[in-house]
Amino acid sequence: MIITLKKTADASEVKALLEDLEGRSLQITQIVGENYDVFGLVGDTASIDERSLLANPIVYNVQRVAQPYKLANRMFHPEDTIVDVCGIPVGGRKIVMIAGPCAVEGKENVCRIAGEVLEAGADMLRGGAYKPRTSPYAFQGMGTEGIECLKAAKDKTGLPIVSELMSIDKLDEFVENVDVIQIGARNMQNFDLLKAVGRTNKPVLLKRGLANTIEEWIMAAEYIMSEGNPNVIFCERGIRTFEKYTRNTLDLSVIPILKERTHLPIIIDPSHAAGDYRLVESLSLAAIAAGADGLIIEVHDDPIHAASDGAQSLKPDKYADLVAKGRAIAKVIGRTL
Amino acid sequence: MIITLKKTADASEVKALLEDLEGRSLQITQIVGENYDVFGLVGDTASIDERSLLANPIVYNVQRVAQPYKLANRMFHPEDTIVDVCGIPVGGRKIVMIAGPCAVEGKENVCRIAGEVLEAGADMLRGGAYKPRTSPYAFQGMGTEGIECLKAAKDKTGLPIVSELMSIDKLDEFVENVDVIQIGARNMQNFDLLKAVGRTNKPVLLKRGLANTIEEWIMAAEYIMSEGNPNVIFCERGIRTFEKYTRNTLDLSVIPILKERTHLPIIIDPSHAAGDYRLVESLSLAAIAAGADGLIIEVHDDPIHAASDGAQSLKPDKYADLVAKGRAIAKVIGRTL
Amino acid sequence: MIITLKKTADASEVKALLEDLEGRSLQITQIVGENYDVFGLVGDTASIDERSLLANPIVYNVQRVAQPYKLANRMFHPEDTIVDVCGIPVGGRKIVMIAGPCAVEGKENVCRIAGEVLEAGADMLRGGAYKPRTSPYAFQGMGTEGIECLKAAKDKTGLPIVSELMSIDKLDEFVENVDVIQIGARNMQNFDLLKAVGRTNKPVLLKRGLANTIEEWIMAAEYIMSEGNPNVIFCERGIRTFEKYTRNTLDLSVIPILKERTHLPIIIDPSHAAGDYRLVESLSLAAIAAGADGLIIEVHDDPIHAASDGAQSLKPDKYADLVAKGRAIAKVIGRTL
Amino acid sequence: MIITLKKTADASEVKALLEDLEGRSLQITQIVGENYDVFGLVGDTASIDERSLLANPIVYNVQRVAQPYKLANRMFHPEDTIVDVCGIPVGGRKIVMIAGPCAVEGKENVCRIAGEVLEAGADMLRGGAYKPRTSPYAFQGMGTEGIECLKAAKDKTGLPIVSELMSIDKLDEFVENVDVIQIGARNMQNFDLLKAVGRTNKPVLLKRGLANTIEEWIMAAEYIMSEGNPNVIFCERGIRTFEKYTRNTLDLSVIPILKERTHLPIIIDPSHAAGDYRLVESLSLAAIAAGADGLIIEVHDDPIHAASDGAQSLKPDKYADLVAKGRAIAKVIGRTL
Q1: B196: nearest CA in chain A?
Q2: Which of A253, A275, C128, C239 stands 20 to 30 A from C270 (CA)?
Q3: Which residues of chain D neighbour B273 with C-beta distances below 8 Å?
Q4: Other CB atoms within 10 A of residue D155 CB
Q5: Nearest in space to D101 (alpha carbons), one of D126, D122, D118
Q6: Global pTM?
């Protein structure tokens, strides 16, 4: 940790600060500059709140040297983590394809779509039983009945289930019935929910918040991991920007960045990023070429009558096209799909 | 609702769309343009998912005319809502001052600070017992013990308590002990939590999410109100932008906008917006001049040793200065403080 | 154009507005809603300033139906535009590779790097002679001498030259010596400069501004085209967001969006977007898979001693790797490189 | 400057880097950490390009201690700069009021509005003769004739003229006829234009770019000052964010920040920030309370028929109201208006 003090700082104030720091068993090295004095602290600085240091009027600046994450940090865990989902490895050579409707709309409906995405090449089934909607007047999901529909679809197709958990009180239901627990973008910093899924050993698909930095996202993974669950899969779904032609701006640079800084798998959700089915194929192929470990894509066989997000849902035949093209790209970059 | 179709749309597809809409008892008016055909829909369009319409390839664009919020909408509720907090009206002529430490650190500590802010002119006490922290390794709050400390401070000073609820399972504790339930920025779209506080009749301080539009924020209020609780107080605390010299960018334009579009009170949190105690007074006075109904400000008598957010905490004497200056401005704009 | 009026509007005020509009030979269709009255205008609405309409207190909202761009609009020009650069088609089946140093540092230097990128597979040479730098104390470019160095490199390698024009007074120098005039991100809305290059027939590489919407970007192309120059090539180089691990956020969704809305080529600059050489390959391959018509990449054989942007420059051997991988992806998507 | 190296760095590479730095007469202090080695550099680090250092694979991070600006820096110029505009001090106790139409529309028109704003309490007249418009099909301003109109209005009212310069080739016209040269938001990083106005001694109103950080903005001032012109006035006009209810988000925190970091005056433009006349008064009073040195506000006596930006223009009587309210606030904070 680097602390920069103003030259105008009173000597006694500087002394008080340094004594305070030395009391915490930190080694301090001073660098005397022309306009500032800089102090480098070595030791367990993780316990120091840099914002408390900034509360001191003599402090000009505080900079951390080390990253604030440990368990997710590749520096301390050089090998890739591969998350096992019912025997399907996420984070390995195979690019994992997750597909299905935005919301579960009924048993017959989700079973039919599950069959279609399976045939098109999907590895897992997605579907929302509990839906976070901006409006209280919009369809809020089928709830427990939706989970039952997903189970029926899994029975029929064998596809593991990915579904979003919005509230701790449904955790048991998810642990029992769902194969990957999705934490949605709006809940990325719902820390109680993160801790709760951290106390299970279910794979967790951790979506990036709409306005969260990559560092905050890794820290959300750290919340889950610090409770004992190492099975975290990152999922980028676009961030909020000023652009109006897309719902969100898909940030594919997260792929090489997360690969360098963490050891966890990263999959991409082009559907929510774009908000427009016409952009999904292009962004999906880009994600594969960029090194993504998987794709989660909304597929519906009647988007015009979908209960939610029809505008961004692909029809099964278009999804099959996308899978075929993605497979060709996967092959030339040394992966499978 | 206005639907714009491409001129290239097939006649039978247009017919199918229109029949679908007419089946929902909507009146449709057509406007034939040069490059597009426009259809205006009148009737109960609230139930139509515009994103399902956009799923139709012949649809070029869908625009809503009316706002998506009803209960919070000033159009249907022209008078200002005044929220009563233990006899203190929020949203009236008096500008309400809420102050206290970021986190509750102990009984003696919070009681002392409560006394100081009372003397400086505060109307209510803020203090976090449950703390949403970016890092799992940072101080997470005292929990139930913290709530007890706040109650002790209320007993001593008479100041009503404002504190943040992070999880539904603590709702009963908050309903019993806290006077204003704060929903934090990170939980603004934690819809289950919004519904839960909507089922109480406690005043709710609803912070704006870091990257949420004003419309989404009003829709979050609508979630609370649609469950039966009309006592919503908006709280702006800065939004996330590219700027690095501040923690967030305080958006004071929300004050006249919310006053025009809704009937609910709006208070400003300059501490979290700025993230720097040196900016708090300037932004506080600005908020009062802009028409805010109140201010929530972090005050600590030893910021250097505060458990969190010392960098943005004012000392009690600085807070007293701010109150005095704010009072002078309140007076010239016809309000009290 | 759709104008929405408040129901509270006075009848005489509505009459005055409608008479004003009818005086402009517009056909008006009224749609009577419950809370609003909506008027659809058909005719030449391009001349109407929607912000003047919004100045009228009875107007609640104004929405344009048609896009504001004409010459760049694919609706009126369905075929792809292919821009010819010294015989190299930009926007065709072949993906065009542009490479070279950020800044021209000397004749020997740029000639050597030009030879290296040619060998690695580049089609054109980039290099800045005039440099837009945030600080007046940073290297500002070699100016005219830099242009001479680029010409020498072209003489040696045959690679056409792409270089940034910052000021109208250098236009003649660029028209005479440079093959593609680059308009940098900071000048995307320097309208006088756009008009000036619009009066030449040189190919123009139009970078997206750091905080410009796609619509504003297309309108900047429209400025160039409306002066008579149809040879516009879009170049995405990342937009400004809250994220701190990258210099900018590369927005690859622009590729399918521009392909749908305009007929102009689009190339991607991953170097400036990422600001970090370690991200360039991943983003480049993503851009190719997404359908980009080309890539402009910073290459330097001694990045540690580069005059600018060393942090984002690839070494020639890494660039050659990237080209080989890009070629393999191009092939499977039916293009060449 | 603080350089952090990875522990995995090869000893010979570290040695090469340090020798390179020592060759520049820098004193280097090493701090040995657990996972990183940190080096503090003292001396003239301004000439070091931190992005060249980052090009070195052994470098993990580079952080500057000192600000990159010198001439604008309050550290080296503690007293407030007061810019004289025809005898009117900008940056002193008096808050300066600038008002007028967005665009000059004719002699009679601007003279009449000038008379109205003078009567309402304005100190200077604003008006655009050259207009930066997003669309090439929108009104582009009257040009030289517009400047003549402004001169006529000055002759009539005595109000100094503030007008936007878009291109260097009009500089002489502006130096001769205009009292404050405005650099618009879109040209904030048009460095050639900044240098050009820096070579005059005219007061320059430097608007913040839509997506520029405060640091970049100060660096733009530094460009002007480094050419010899110390008469720079900052002007905040809102930044681009995701919010859609306002045209831009006004960032009032710039006022205390610029006051602390620089010695230059700062005025606020609420009209362009809000884009809506209904928000202007509220934001103006906020700016005064926050400590702004002036306000620049669009006023038009017939906004519905204004050539541009009618939606954000106040009528003269509303402007007079605003001035009166602003004066009352100015008084209680110890200033005049």
Answers
A1: A167
A2: A275
A3: 253
A4: 11
A5: D126
A6: 0.96
